[in-house]
Amino acid sequence: MRSVVGRSLRYIACLGAVIAAALAVRGDDWPEWRGKGRGGVWNEDGILESFPAGGLPVRWRTPIRAGFAGPAVAGGRVFVTDFSRPEGTRGVERALCLDSRSGRVVWTREWPADYKGLSTLYATGPRATPTVDGRLVYTLGASGILHCLDAASGEVVWKKDYVKDYGTTLPTWGMTGAPLVDGDRLICLVGGEPDAAVVAFDKRTGRELWRSIKADGEPGYGQPILVESHGARQLILWHPKAVYSLDPATGKIFWEQPFKINLGLTVATPVCSRGRLFVSSFYNGSMMLELERDRPGAKLVWKGKSSSEIDSDGLHALITTPVIDGDYIYGVCSYGQFRCLDARSGERVWESLAVTEEKTRWASALIVRQRDRYFISNDRGDLIIAQLAPSGYTEISRTRLIKPTFQPGNRRELGAVNWSHPAYADRHIFARNDEEILSASLEQPR
């Protein structure tokens, strides 16, 4: 009897070890824009302390077409979108699913897209990172074509065309708002006229559940986020005229804080930390709100005074979503200056050009927190590990990750830039440009 019990216990222990090992091998997913919850936080352990002298070991490279959309990684698959344009404004957008370990293309799904009305220079591909939700994946093209696809096969479950279905006027730089899953809802920045700036669909069928906010001009380029403050769940949408808080279940407006943004450039995602809600724009600078404790509401804490991209008074972010760490904000300003602000007052603490390496218009870097440090991918194709503190910027390690391929139309030392947000999953980084997508290991050598 004891031997039977002993064998059973050893079997259970062995099975537990196998399951634990399997979970450890798989690691974390990165299922949407800026990772799970859109917070730009990567929680995996076993990550290297510094980069190898010869560069990161690349697990695979797979050719793709042009686009700004970053990859999403979930369930052992990588999802990304791209675009090819044979002539004029018409071309073909495409969603790809790849095996995360080999880079092998599992399936593709393509559809015609017309980029008429978009800035010619930037009419090069989708902007929105795919959103993965279990068996479904949602993609949004630059011309406002939304697809719900079967994640396993790529088959179309349902689709919407923002221009045809909602009368959306495409903004200069295309539709960028990555779909946001909230329970059974898929919440989207649609820009539909006259009253559907934001729309919630049934995520399985595409049936409209609610619409909200008057759309009478630029819909902006913001990513909707969900925040919870003192028990109240709020959908935050940064529109070119105001920051809005909505009830995610009904679309009812809880509150709005006016903030008119030039050219609709609400690009950097709003960030929330310990009841503070922060937004920053290229021309109009930054604004800090404090969420109320007893009900859904917000009060203005401080707001920048400058509306100049050159004579900036705090942080004038464009592509870079800032981070809040304790009482300090870190981000990239309009001409590549990496800046630290006091979150309580908006006062500048320090600035450095070490991250972007050149003071030039739109220079940027994408910031992700990993434990007590940050992984930063700049638009020169470098990946950086750094410590950020009110005392200054401390670079730990830097390596070349991917070739910049997009020509931004302004003078740059390297000519081209890379503005695509990488994904961090399974102790690897997944990055793309207009020619390829790659996976490189960030695992600590044993």
Throw out a few tags for this protein.
mainly beta; Methanol Dehydrogenase, Chain A; Lipocalin; single chain; 33 strands; 4-stranded antiparallel sheet; 446 residues
Query: Could you give me the name of the CATH homologous superfamily of the largest domain?
Result: Quinoprotein alcohol dehydrogenase-like superfamily
What is the oligomeric state here?
Answer: single chain
Catalogue the unreliable spans. 1-25
- The helicity comes to under 10%
If you consult CATH, what is the topology of the largest domain?
Answer: Methanol Dehydrogenase, Chain A
E-strand count: 33
CATH architecture of the largest domain: 8 Propeller
Spatial gap, N to C terminus: 41 Å
CA-based gyration radius: 22 Å
Brief synopsis:
By secondary structure, the protein is mainly beta. It folds into two domains: 29-219 and 426-446, Methanol Dehydrogenase, Chain A, CATH 2.140.10.10; 265-419, Lipocalin (Beta Barrel), CATH 2.40.128.630. It has helices at residues 2-26, 162-166, and strands at 41-42, 58-63, 72-74, 77-87, 90-99, 105-114, 131-133, 136-140, 145-150, 156-161, 180-182, 185-192, 196-202, 208-212, 225-229, 232-239, 242-246, 253-258, 271-273, 276-281, 285-291, 298-303, 323-325, 328-332, 338-342, 348-352, 365-370, 373-378, 382-389, 392-400, 423-425, 428-432, 436-441.
